Amino acid sequence: MNLTPSASSVVEGPSAPVTVPRHVAIIMDGNGRWAAKRSLPRVAGHRAGAEAVRRTMQAAVDNGVEVLTLYAFSSENWRRSEDEVSDLKGLMRFYLERELGTLQKEKVRLKLIGEPAAFGNELYDRLQKAVAETASNDRLTLVIALNYGSQAELAAAARALAQGARDGTVDPDTIDIGAIENLLHTRDLPPLDLLIRTSGEVRLSNFLLWQAAYAELHFVDTLWPDFDEAAFAAALAEFSRRQRRFGGR
Ligand code: IPE
Ligand code: IPE
Ligand code: MG
């Protein structure tokens, strides 16, 4: 992944030309508050959130987005109760089984970032299997961030470079931006164009800190379970109106 301006596709719409972001990432927040508003347990919010994932993935396919990266579980979410973590793992397992057919039908390639092995062998093996089975799909790349934390990702990159320097395989003088990007989990993905966060919180919560350097940011009050095709289209429309400069004029 690099930060040079991405060649977002320009689609001629009925009025002004529309620029479609190649890579969209979403901090899917607000499941708990959605449930609380309805006096439901938090797990009901997570379940409704999974339906929003389904809708959003379809909207990304329909709009010609190349990569959709979703923040599903942060490296800090282990601070939640054991019950909630267990519910989230159960939902991941359930939706993975249920949606594998949809991924194949829509030609969606699944990819993981973060440290998903921490979820235990059973879930990790299923995830790996889904990644392998969808590897040749070429319509949308759906990246799920599981046990992901940007600071840990950058620390691991620093560690790898330092070890290389110690072993003599890395010349410290040659460490540049590209050398770091090649060690990030997103190395095979196009630059991040648009980062969306739902639920009214205006922070990044340790998500894609490096990658967001020149991403357009879009914060909406909508709680994640209420996010739908129209909300996704509104974010794309807003992106299309932005003028990206990458430090130029
Ligand atoms: C996002 O919703 C889902 C995860 C972080 C797994 P939250 O569970 O954070 O919902 P709120 O922020 O408490 O409303
Ligand atoms: C960010 O949401 C993580 C995910 C959406 C997976 P959080 O709800 O964990 O973030 P904070 O704690 O409000 O910053
Ligand atoms: Mg939250």
UniProtKB/TrEMBL annotation:
Cofactor or coenzyme needed: Mg(2+)
Lineage per the UniProt record: Bacteria, Pseudomonadati, Pseudomonadota, Alphaproteobacteria, Sphingomonadales
**EC number(s) for this protein?**
2.5.1.-
Q: Which UniProt keywords apply?
A: Magnesium, Metal-binding, Transferase
Q: How is the cofactor bound?
A: Binds 2 magnesium ions per subunit.
Role, per record: Catalyzes the condensation of isopentenyl diphosphate (IPP) with allylic pyrophosphates generating different type of terpenoids.
**Protein's recorded name:** Isoprenyl transferase
Query: Mind listing the GO molecular function terms for this protein?
Result: transferase activity
Record-stated family: Belongs to the UPP synthase family.
PANTHER family cross-referenced by the UniProt entry:
DEHYDRODOLICHYL DIPHOSPHATE SYNTHASE 2 (PTHR10291:SF0), DEHYDRODOLICHYL DIPHOSPHATE SYNTHASE FAMILY MEMBER (PTHR10291)
Q: Which InterPro entries match?
A: UPP_synth-like, UPP_synth-like_CS, UPP_synth-like_sf
Where is the secretion signal located? Answer: none
Q: How does it assemble?
A: Homodimer.
**Where does this protein hold Mg(2+)?**
29, 216
* Protein species of origin: Sphingomonas humi
